[in-house]
């Protein structure tokens, strides 16, 4: 299972959005949007799944 992280556009911090998925699922939904409340700045951001940061791949 992969945990998805996104970069907050306001604080530039990498945040854990609490979404865990399998890599196969991830590839299937990579064009979908995730709308999540950001723990770093408190705003709601919309991210495209393919913009996710995978720490293992970094
Ligand atoms: Zn944010």
What does this entry look like structurally?
It is a single chain. With 58 residues, the chain is mainly beta. It has a single domain (2-57), classed as SH3 type barrels. The chain has 1 helix and 4 strands. It has one helix at residues 23-28; strands spanning 2-7, 14-21, 33-37, 44-48. The strands form 2 sheets. It has a two-stranded antiparallel ribbon. The mean pLDDT is 89. The structure holds zinc ion (ZN). Zinc ion binds next to loops.
CATH architectural name: Roll
**How big a fraction of the residues is strand?**
35-45%
Which residues form runs of ≥5 with pLDDT under 50? none
How many E strands?
4
Largest sheet: 2 strands, antiparallel
Give Rg in angstroms: 11 Å
- Overall structural class, as computed from helix and strand content, comes to mainly beta
Indicate the CATH topology.
SH3 type barrels
Mean pLDDT: 89
The CATH class turns out to be: Mainly Beta
Which ligands does the model contain, each kind named once?
zinc ion
Strand order of the largest sheet: 1-2
Terminal Cα span = 16 Å
The count of domains is: 1
